Amino acid sequence: MKDIARSAWVVAGCVAVGLLASAPIGAQELEEWQGEEIRTLLLAVGDARSESRAPDEGVIEYLPSYMQGAEGIAFVPFTLLIDPSAITTPNFAVFVTLTVPNDAPAAGVPADTVVFENSFYAEANEVDSGQVRVTGALQSAGGEYDVYIAIRDSFDGEAPIDSAINPTTGQPVRTTVVPPITILRERVTIPDLWAGELALSTVFLNESVEMLSEAPTAEDLAKFPYTLGGARIVPRLDNRFTKADTLGWVFQIYNPGHDNGMPDITIDYEFYTQNDGGETFFNRTAPVALSSERLPPGFDVAEATLVDGQNIPLGGFPAGDYRLQIKVTDNERSSELMHDLLFTVAES
Question: Is the pLDDT of residue 12 over 50?
Fold first, then answer.
């Protein structure tokens, strides 16, 4: 069978290491009233960490991805899908905390230690399949953690005031109204992408890709965390396509063997149809070589990160369920990694 027609995600096959979140995640400058709103989230997360309040089930869905960040650190862009009933104002506050679990402390790190903390404001007008969709990022060394994410309405500096009588003094007391706070708690495992063995980032299904004219700043990464080198990705969160769509994916390759900085990587993409009786080989693309055959002279894996991806028009795919098998072979070290992407193609 003929190889599938494709378009390469990038031609060069590499991006500079420093472009991917080696800078700290940019923090928003907060006004005093914003700081007060964030403080209510911090206190609520503290209650959840001490188990004096239970997290809320089924309101926030946390969808993380994993890439290398600064040396020894994983950069974790994430998407939150939020039930719109939890937000009633145009803007809302988000507080993210990553802690060492009480029941699974890391070696030499006390339980409940905070390893990452950040807050930001988001708009509630981006709705995806009936849910509010928000992106953010965190960063940490690999390991097992508890992630806490708290959200609340923002009053944009005009919080309503409640008046009451202090039963002890009999004097009127004015307090700022705090709206309902929703908290997600989830146990997560962040991979160690710096262990020296061949490794892959998350394989991203992309809705769209925007090529950047200059390196992203920390503030850019805070606003658009799905950035791979010179490209900004809008990730696709579902795997259902029509025959009019294009299947696009992209990923990075870490810790390859090399000869004076030049890697020798082969990537094979094969498609299989899936049915009740198992699966059948459907088609493949031509193998991709990330080696001296394609990479520029003087390429050095210590200074650049390998990246590959494809864009496959689905017009020639019969409606059905498919498995894309990605095999990355490191010819220098005689090692390989396999990764599967499952997707469905409908007529329309």
Answer: no
The residues near 11 (Cβ < 8 Å, ≥ 6 apart) are: none
Fold of the 32-190 domain: Immunoglobulin-like (2.60.40)
**Cβ–Cβ under 8 Å, residues 246 and 311:** yes
d(Cα 247, Cα 241) in Å, to the nearest integer?
8
Closest CA to 210 of 226, 221, 186: 226
Q: How far apart are CA 20 and CA 167, in angstroms?
A: 56
Q: What are phi and psi of 42, to 5 degrees?
A: -60, -45
Domain 7-18+198-346 identical in fold to domain 32-190: yes
Taking alpha carbons only, the member of 139, 26, 118 closest to residue 76 is 139
Average pLDDT over residues 128-138: 88
69 burial (CB, 10 Å; 0-12 / 13-18 / 19+) is: buried
Domain boundaries defined on the chain = 7-18+198-346, 32-190
Torsion angles phi and psi, residue 100, rounded to 5: -75, 130
pLDDT of residue 105: 66
pLDDT tens digit string along 270-290?
999 999 889 999 999 999 999
The predicted-structure confidence for 54-106, as pLDDT tens digits, reads as follows 999 999 999 999 999 999 999 999 999 999 999 999 999 999 999 999 887 66
DSSP 29-61: P--HHHHHHHHHHHHHHHHHHTTSSPPPSSSEE
Residue 119's pLDDT band (boundaries 50, 70, 90)? very high
Give the three-class secondary structure for 67: strand
Task: Provide the 10 A C-beta neighbour count for residue 35.
Answer: 11
SS3 letters for 79-133?
Answer: EEEECHHHCCCCEEEEEEEEECCCCCCCCCCCCCCEEEEEEEEEECCCEECCEEE
Please, what is the average pLDDT of the chain? 88
Instruction: Kindly state which CATH superfamily the domain 7-18+198-346 is placed in.
Output: Immunoglobulins (2.60.40.10)
